[in-house]
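thread: overnight batch results

M.L. [08:02]
morning all. the overnight job finished for the chain we discussed friday. pasting input first so we're all looking at the same thing
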Amino acid sequence: MITFCFLAAQGGCEPQLTSHAAANMKIGNDKAFLIKIISQCLPYIGYPRSLNALGCVNKAAENK
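M.L. [08:03]
and the structure it wrote out:
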């Protein structure tokens, strides 16, 4: 989860963020939980990076 948040905050790491989102889903953190995490990080990482992170979570959920 920490790596997921760091990658979202860093930006420009969308392929890695997608793979970490998929890995989180495999260990039991569902899509809704990851969206809640991004929502909590939004004030700190900004709106554009949060939107990119949401896109990565959606992409990982489609490939699941």
